[in-house]
Specification:
The protein is an alpha/beta fold. The protein is built from 6 helices and 4 strands, in the order αβαβαββααα. One of its GO terms (biological process) is glycoprotein metabolic process.
Amino acid sequence: VFPSLAQAQASVANEVYQELGQPSVFLFCPTEYCSSLCSPSPSQSCYLQTIGQELLPEIGVIWTGPKVVSQELSAALLEEVEAVLRRRPVIWDNLYANDYDCRRVFLGPYMGRAPGLMSRLHGLLLNPNCELQANFIPIHTLGTWFRSELGSCAHPDHAGTEAVAALGDSQGAQDGSYSPQEALELALRDWVAEINQQALEPGR
């Protein structure tokens, strides 16, 4: 029925999106969802070019970066992906994911993401450790990074302004600079306080 996989996927996604009444959040994960899966590159991928052309512009497209688990995300790569997809990507960040090797737990700070990255994104999803309690540092430091990104936006939109106001009482980077080491220290301090609080609860 369809001349290519990309056209088939885009057609089905478009129809489902419209059937659901065009929801404000509707995400599509392409078969080529990182640079290492693209042939020969994101900008020259016939598959991604078709997705960019055929997928309705209101549908968000998920991207993990250079690899499935990307240690770094650069502005240059996101510019390339945005150009071929004709929209800013939604980053599906697997930095902390350990479902592929449950012998490992990732407790370091959120890092390896270029400053000013948020303005190039349509959204960001963090794929955490499978163990719930192990995600305090990942989520806490992601919050500190997010605050620093909001602070670095020269022209925050209305939603961004509200977010800055809501986070105004929180400690962390407010001046647009982000230090993974400082974010880690903040997270560890708050995690110890959380552990001590739980230890005082009845039945603990």
